[in-house]
């Protein structure tokens, strides 16, 4: 029995990497019986059957897993958001950040198309960038024909498993082409009527780049809060979580409770009003969710 990582899944085969070699494996029937399926990114035990074939015998516990793309054990996501065409959208960015926090995936915010900003719009964007950096998020800005982007991203990619996510039509495929030039993903064309991009989904593969692993397909383009409970939402806003320890009541939802430290921080400007408004909006969405049985 040997241990390796699934780097690619295709047509019922799992390609397990160990010491630079890919072993083409089938999954054991026992996984189907348990309703389990190996995922790209899984650490697995496998047995060899010949030189380059084998069987996946055991899936090790996962740090996290996503449905779209189907991938496990992700360290971080590069969140690709444009500042123009489509315009920068803090509600959508915060949705992505909340869901990534709930999966314990570190976000790196990558803002594209900064060359399209008018001079007056630049100051507003800088204020947002300062806000997100103050929370603790990495923020990278880029523009068309940005030759330095790969060099600036390299330190973040080393020894990490990374996925790309973000709005449609903001440059995820272009960024993937920059990071993985051999891939030649079809770059999405902005649909003028919808303001959204179009891209073709492919099988998922983890490819070595800059000393780490990168999923070769753009991930989810929208998020919901199906897996987040109302009590967990505070922990998905890092600046709320730090301050919430000062709330009088344990389990405070920071809406109507007395002596709420988060509401006090909102009054002083320590918590930004737009972040609190998004928290209220997301909490209401969770409260309105139909019960699951």
Large-scale geometry:
globular
Helical stretch tally: 8
CATH topology of the largest domain: Rossmann fold
Number of domains in the coordinates? 3
Q: Architecture of the largest domain in CATH?
A: 3-Layer(aba) Sandwich
Determine the mean pLDDT. 87
Which strand-content bin applies to the residues? 15-25%
Order of the strands making up the biggest sheet:
10-9-8-11-13-12
Number of strands: 13
Largest sheet: number of strands, sense, barrel closure: 6 strands, mixed
Structure overview:
This protein has 293 residues and is α/β, with parallel strands linked by helices. It has 3 domains: 2-60, OB fold (Dihydrolipoamide Acetyltransferase, E2P) (Beta Barrel); 71-215, P-loop containing nucleotide triphosphate hydrolases (Rossmann fold, 3-Layer(aba) Sandwich), CATH 3.40.50.300; 230-287, Probable gtpase engc, domain 3 (Ribonucleotide Reductase Protein R1, domain 1, Orthogonal Bundle), CATH 1.10.40. 28% of the residues lie in helices and 24% in strands. It is built from 8 helices and 13 strands. Helix 2 (90-102) packs across helix 8. The relative contact order is 0.12.
Keywords for this structure?
OB fold (Dihydrolipoamide Acetyltransferase, E2P); 13 strands; 28% helix; Ribonucleotide Reductase Protein R1, domain 1; Rossmann fold; globular; alpha/beta; 5-stranded mixed beta barrel; 293 residues; 8 helices
Short description:
With 293 residues, the protein is α/β, with parallel strands linked by helices.
């Amino acid at each position: 029995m040997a241990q390796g990582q699934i780097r690619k899944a295709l047509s019922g085969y799992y390609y397990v990497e160990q010491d630079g070699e890919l072993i083409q494996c089938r999954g054991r029937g026992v996984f189907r019986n348990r309703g389990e399926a190996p995922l790209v990114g899984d650490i697995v035990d496998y047995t060899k059957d010949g030189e380059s074939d084998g069987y996946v015998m055991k899936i090790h516990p996962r740090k996290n897993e996503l449905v779209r793309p189907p991938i496990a054990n992700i360290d971080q996501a590069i969140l690709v958001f444009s500042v123009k065409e489509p315009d920068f959208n803090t509600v959508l960015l915060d949705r992505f950040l909340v869901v990534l926090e709930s999966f314990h995936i570190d976000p790196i915010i990558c803002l594209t198309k900064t060359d399209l900003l008018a001079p007056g719009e630049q100051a507003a964007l800088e204020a947002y960038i300062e806000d997100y950096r103050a929370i603790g998020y990495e923020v990278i800005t880029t523009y068309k024909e940005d030759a330095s982007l790969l060099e600036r991203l390299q330190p973040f990619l080393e020894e990490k498993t990374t996925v790309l996510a973000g709005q449609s039509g903001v440059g995820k495929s272009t960024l993937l082409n920059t990071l993985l030039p051999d891939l030649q993903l079809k770059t999405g064309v902005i649909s003028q009527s919808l303001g959204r991009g179009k891209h073709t989904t492919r099988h998922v593969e983890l490819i070595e780049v800059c000393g780490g692993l990168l999923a070769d397909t753009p991930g989810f383009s929208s998020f919901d809060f199906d897996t987040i409970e109302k009590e967990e939402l505070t922990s998905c806003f890092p600046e709320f979580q730090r301050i919430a320890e000062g709330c009088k009541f344990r389990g405070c939802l920071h809406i109507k409770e007395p002596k709420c430290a988060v509401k006090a921080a909102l009054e002083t400007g320590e918590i930004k009003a737009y972040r609190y408004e998004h928290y209220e909006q997301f909490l209401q969405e969770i409260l309105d969710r139909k019960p699951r049985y």
